[in-house]
């Protein structure tokens, strides 16, 4: 499984709200040129929750073809409907995705057995790796430790993006990590901390703006230079906090626009940042010379 920084890429839009594929291609090339180790498309940062299935498919296919095996491409295929997750997963596998990210079934709030069966249904049907996605702040539920213990043994379930921000939970599930089941930090302010628990890297919002630097936080740790990793983690902490001062991906798209990446706006119910929050974000970026 992949080690390093995997960018949870935004989806750029035109002014009329349609997907800006030209800009998407520029972002993909820029990420790869700046040491990103993998691309996650159609995640939370990609706003797929406000896109149609047809748009999701078009973005996934474009990304896979544009990247063209330069780095691994992971496609978000999750749903709170198991059948929908299954159909999307098979479709993206056939497009050429290297792996899939499957979120826990939000709103339904399945019990442990339902959670296990949800993920296993998809894992039994595909031949590419699946990464579980635990983000209770978004879904209203979490993948409990017993479910992780069981799912970690499935040959097609090869990792978990842990984005609860709960270091105690992360410590408990770290017991199930192995060569066949890895963990990625889902929180940019905890990359070094999570790697101390055995994480293999990060699936990152920060990497949208600082791909090389986020890669270096992870690589320094992997190379045994924990001090350098921690110094970089702390250097960018104020900017990381600003990227989450409002719900993701509102601040990160604003940050990219401040960097003249021209990724456009949002789809409702997401909208522009509060003016005071935007000032805080811009100040944090100016401190780093980003705008």
TrEMBL record:
Enzyme Commission number(s) from the entry: 4.3.3.7
As for subcellular location, the record says: Cytoplasm
Site Part of a proton relay during catalysis — annotated at 44, 107
Give the UniProt keywords, A-Z: Amino-acid biosynthesis, Cytoplasm, Diaminopimelate biosynthesis, Lyase, Lysine biosynthesis, Schiff base
An example Gene Ontology molecular-function term: 4-hydroxy-tetrahydrodipicolinate synthase activity
Concerning PROSITE patterns, the annotation shows: DHDPS_2 (PS00666)
Could you give the subunit structure recorded for this chain? Homotetramer; dimer of dimers.
What the protein does comes down to: Catalyzes the condensation of (S)-aspartate-beta-semialdehyde [(S)-ASA] and pyruvate to 4-hydroxy-tetrahydrodipicolinate (HTPA).
- PANTHER family listed in its UniProt record: 4-HYDROXY-2-OXOGLUTARATE ALDOLASE, MITOCHONDRIAL, DIHYDRODIPICOLINATE SYNTHASE
Family annotation (Gene3D superfamilies)? Aldolase class I
Q: Where is the active site?
A: 133, 161
Q: Which reaction does it catalyse?
A: L-aspartate 4-semialdehyde + pyruvate = (2S,4S)-4-hydroxy-2,3,4,5-tetrahydrodipicolinate + H2O + H(+)
Name of one Pfam family that matches: DHDPS
Binding of pyruvate occurs at 45, 203
**The family this protein is said to belong to:** Belongs to the DapA family.
EC main class here is lyase
* Name of protein: 4-hydroxy-tetrahydrodipicolinate synthase
Pathway the protein acts in: Amino-acid biosynthesis; L-lysine biosynthesis via DAP pathway; (S)-tetrahydrodipicolinate from L-aspartate: step 3/4
Please tell me whether the keyword Amino-acid biosynthesis is annotated for this protein: yes
